Amino acid sequence: MRGFLTRLSVAAGLALAASALPEHVAAAEPVEVYAIMSTTGVAGFFGSSEARALAVVEKVVNAGGGIQGRPLKFVVLDDQSNPQVTVQLMNQLVAKNVPMVLGPSVPQSCFAAGPIAERSHIVEMCLNPAGRPTIGGFQFVPFPNSVDVASASLRYFHDHGLTRIALLNATDGSGQDATLSFNTALQLPEFRGITKVAEESYSPTDVSVSAQVSRIKSAGAQAIVSYNAGLPLGTVLRSLNDAGLDVPVLTTGGNMTYAQMQQYAAFLPKDMLFGGMLAWVPGDVGPGPLRDKQMAYVAALNAEGLKSEAGYAGVWDPAFLLVDALRHAGPDATSEQVRSWLSSLHGWVGTDGVFDFRSYPQRGVGIDTVLVMRWDPASKSFAGASRRGGR
């Protein structure tokens, strides 16, 4: 009884002490991190996935103590897949003196956001390999560059005897970057055996690309590269199906969502391929810290009833890079402090690889983290189609 009364007295004392604490300590002010996502518009499939993933990241971080005891809160802003809206949102965040922003996601929006980040000294984390950061600057693109992704894809084609390829890319930023990247990679000595038999383009607002597909079919293409953002992929796949041209089609990992595969199921090619990164099909790596991070990511998604797809995986490491920057530099860190911490980061294990911003300035990773993936219609899931680097 004496022990019980002692414990009761201590508990009462603690409760009284807690009630006397200042309100701002009892309920710590959240650390807000702004994110620009394309949750509507042509890239809405992908951006919506990213936004859902951030809600999971927020829950994981706060369960682990938040940012030095303060809860994390992501504030998601929709740029409607429109770079003009991206510019407006970036300028608003600059006016608020925020030190960092996560996103945007589509190439043309990253191209628009980069100069604002450099001019205003705000850390900006582009979520697309097509980003073109300035070495030593404020824009970071935590992915291998577009030429690396193209090279890994060509290596995959070459190793499977697919030596006659066609480019059918949109005229938006994603498509233009893909055309430039694949044409650049095709000049590398190791791909001398691959011939580009056709190069076609189309507007993302076109409702058919039947004329372009007809020319590609006549050219005898064995595989097609078609980079676009979201809904335009459906236009391409329908036209290919209507023309009876069923060859492997490779597109950006930004189209690697279950919602799109379900919507396009009736006219998907037998071999639907994607260029992406290791975490986009987690668990294919050997045992070690990288696999442990991937399995923790999968467990966090499963706890929310979600399965891994590109939007979730693509935002996971960038989000945690900013979280760790704030945990090290402090919740009120300046953009200069965040930039300095990221730039010097070496050996940071994420889900997509071991990041080293000294060896890969502004990116942290290279071609060895690229993976070619495919949609498996039998299991209705994504699977690895290559080893690292496209082999």
What does this structure look like?
- There is one protein chain.
- With 391 residues, the protein is of the alpha/beta class.
- It has two domains: 197 residues, Rossmann fold; 156 residues, Rossmann fold.
- The protein is 43% helix and 17% strand.
- The chain contains 13 helices and 14 strands.
- Strands 7-6-8-9-10-13-14 form a seven-stranded mixed beta sheet, sandwiched between helices. The chain has a five-stranded parallel beta sheet with strand order 2-1-3-4-5, sandwiched between helices. Strands 11-12 form a two-stranded antiparallel ribbon.
- A hairpin with a 4-residue loop joins strand 11 and strand 12.
- The N terminus is likely disordered.
Identify the CATH class of the largest domain: Alpha Beta
Which regions are unreliable across 5 or more consecutive residues at pLDDT < 50? 1-26
The name of the CATH topology of the largest domain is: Rossmann fold
* Count of helix runs: 13
Beta strand %: 15-25%
Fraction of residues in H or I helices = 40-55%
- Count up the domains: 2
CATH homologous superfamily caption of the largest domain: Response regulator
Beta strands, count: 14
Give me the secondary-structure category. Answer: alpha/beta
By oligomeric state, this entry counts as single chain
Overall shape: globular
Gap between N and C termini, in Å? Answer: 71 Å
The biggest beta sheet reads:
7 strands, mixed
- Which architecture of the largest domain per CATH? 3-Layer(aba) Sandwich
Major beta sheet, strand line-up:
7-6-8-9-10-13-14
Rounded to an integer in angstroms, the radius of gyration calculated over CA atoms is 23 Å
- Compressed to H and E, one letter per element, the order equals HHEHEHEHEEHEHEHEHEHEHHHEEEE
What number is the mean pLDDT?
Answer: 91
